Amino acid sequence: MKYVICLLLFMWSSVSCAGEIIATVNDEPISSFDVDVRTRLMNLQKSENYIFNNQMKKQILNTLINEKIKVQYAQKNGIIVRDEDIQNAIAHLEQQNGMKKGQLARVLKQNNVPLDFLKDQVRSDLMWLQLMQRQKQNIQPVQPAEIKARKNQIRKSLREEGYLLAEILLPNEAEALRCEKEIRSGKIAFDQAARQYSKAPSASRGGQIGWVKKNHYEAVVQPILEQMIPGQLSRPIETKNGFLILAMLDKKKALTSDTIQIWELAQQALTLDKTVTLMPTIVGDLHSCRDFMDFAHKEAIPESIQKGMISPDQLPPELKELLSPAAINTVIGPLQMNGANVFFMKCSVSQKNLLPSDDEIRTQIELERLEHMSDKILENAKRFVVVEYK
What we know:
Layout: E1 3-4, E2 7-8, E3 15-16, E4 19-25, E5 28-31, H1 32-46, H2 54-76, H3 83-96, H4 103-110, H5 115-135, H6 144-158, E6 162-170, H7 173-184, H8 190-197, E7 208-213, H9 222-227, E8 237-239, E9 242-252, E10 259-271, H10 272-285, H11 289-299, E11 306-310, H12 317-323, E12 331-337, E13 340-353, H13 358-382, E14 387-389
Antiparallel strand pairs: 1-4, 2-3, 4-5, 4-14, 6-7, 6-9, 8-9, 10-11, 10-13, 12-13
Helix pairs in contact: 1-2, 2-5, 3-5, 6-13
């Protein structure tokens, strides 16, 4: 019988109500209802709206299968997670997201996600984490030579131009042009289009491929990458694998040093009429970042007030050229933008080392080894599991 109502999934599990059973893991069922709820939960966790197509359904089903395998394997190895541990983990999630106690449960309910489904996911994560903690002693210690090699590798990557890209690969020009039109018109977001249409392995990640070098793609793509700017969408590019649509998310220049200059930059904007009245105060009385920000919170357009750390290379070229020679704690402006006068102040200038410390590199390598061990243990656990697809 393929339909189940209020079937007890596990001795500790919540009750899953109504849904077609689409798989079992050692006779423990996973229903279409489980997959549907996990989709809604993923939308909340990642602030994205997933296209619920067959490809996404298969990916979520595989995730649920892996979670059941992890729980069963951890239980066989004596791992126990208390309800109190789960509550603490959920409370930590609320704190991370600036929520009050109990607010997450209300958000889940508003989005038709039973709280028990989140608890099941948290339980699986905590059990597997406990199991991995036991394996830490089996990880090979990181040697100084490995740290040095990793640091040299990072330094080499800093010396190369890089592109943060997302891609959509389609089999023919007609489909690529139709997809491009839908994205440019706002009918569909790039990541949704990638999940729904793309034939590339990156489709499951919304097309994102991370930072790549210029030679990541074949020669025909390279000059297009050089010309694109962050935020730009390419026209369909014919390649040997199909027609490629690229989104340039960010771009980094090749660096000649391990350090970059960082500015602490403050900004505010005044309406044109206020500028005439307050200009003497702005120029004559604001001699520190604190003065600048105090004045901004009293007089400036609220949405324009900003203060933070930024690399000069992240600024528009004309703004970088204007601010570069300016002395610290000196008001720069006004610049007319969108019907207002914008003022800036360089609060401080510092150097940031782009290379991580030895301890940070050691921790990263240890985490990579632990992740690799996790994958091996999961693959080994699958040898003793019977998974049936209905």
